[in-house]
Specification:
37% helix; 159 residues; N-acetyltransferase domain-containing protein; alpha+beta; 4 strands; Aminopeptidase; 5 helices; 4-stranded antiparallel β-sheet
C-alpha cells in the first residue's frame, strides 16, 4: 500500500461524497442521524444514500471556493482509489473576500430542518465564543478527514 497526496479535481467530487456518506453514516454517526433521521429516508434506497447528491454539491462548492484547498489521498495499490481527503479553508481577507458558489440546499424531504438550524445556531455561538465577532474569518479550518480506515471500522461495527 502506497498512499499519495494530490490536489483534488472536480471529477473526484462524487468519490469524496461517497466516502463522506460512509464515514458519516446515519447508522453510526450521531450528528448525521439527527440531521438525516432514518425515519425520513426513502425505503427504496440504502440508508444514508439520500444525502449523497447534497454531499456531492457541498464538496463541489468547497472545491470551487477561492479560499479552499481540497486534497485527496489515493492508494496506488488500489488503482489510485481515493482513501481519504481534506478540505482546508484559509482565513478570509477583508480586502478580497473569497468567491464561492451558493451553499446547496439540503434535501428537505429527508432532513430534519429544525435540528439542522439548531446545529448551525450552536456552531455560530461556539465560533463567536471561541474566536470573537469575526468568528472563523481569521482561522485556518480543516474539515473532518474521512478515510478508508474509518470505513473499515464502520463496516466492522455493522457486522
Amino acid at each position: 500500500m502506497a498512499i499519495q497526496i494530490r490536489d483534488a479535481t472536480e471529477k473526484d467530487m462524487p468519490a469524496l461524497a461517497r466516502l463522506a456518506g460512509v464515514v458519516f453514516h446515519p447508522t453510526t454517526d450521531w450528528i448525521t442521524r439527527q440531521v438525516f433521521p432514518l425515519h425520513l429516508q426513502p425505503k427504496n434506497i440504502p440508508d444514508g444514500d439520500s444525502s449523497l447528491p447534497w454531499r456531492q454539491l457541498r464538496k463541489t462548492a468547497s472545491f470551487n471556493t477561492s479560499n479552499c484547498t481540497v486534497k485527496v489521498a489515493v492508494d496506488t495499490a488500489l488503482n489510485n482509489q481515493i482513501v481519504g481527503y481534506a478540505v482546508w479553508e484559509q482565513p478570509v481577507d477583508d480586502e478580497k473576500p473569497p468567491t464561492a458558489p451558493a451553499d446547496p440546499e439540503l434535501p428537505s424531504d429527508v432532513t430534519d430542518m429544525k435540528v439542522f438550524e439548531e446545529l448551525k445556531s450552536i456552531l455560530k455561538e461556539d465560533h463567536k465564543a471561541s474566536f470573537g465577532d469575526r468568528e472563523l474569518k481569521d482561522v485556518w479550518r480543516l474539515s473532518p478527514l474521512p478515510t478508508s480506515l474509518q470505513i473499515l471500522l464502520h463496516n466492522k461495527q455493522r457486522s
